[in-house]
Amino acid sequence: MAMAAQEIEAMILAAMPDAAVEITDLAGDGNHYSARVISPSFAGMSRVRQHQAVYAALQGKMGNELHALQLETAIPSGDHQ
Question: Regarding the domain with residue range 5-74, which homologous superfamily does it belong to in the CATH classification?
Answer without folding.
Answer: BolA-like (3.30.300.90)
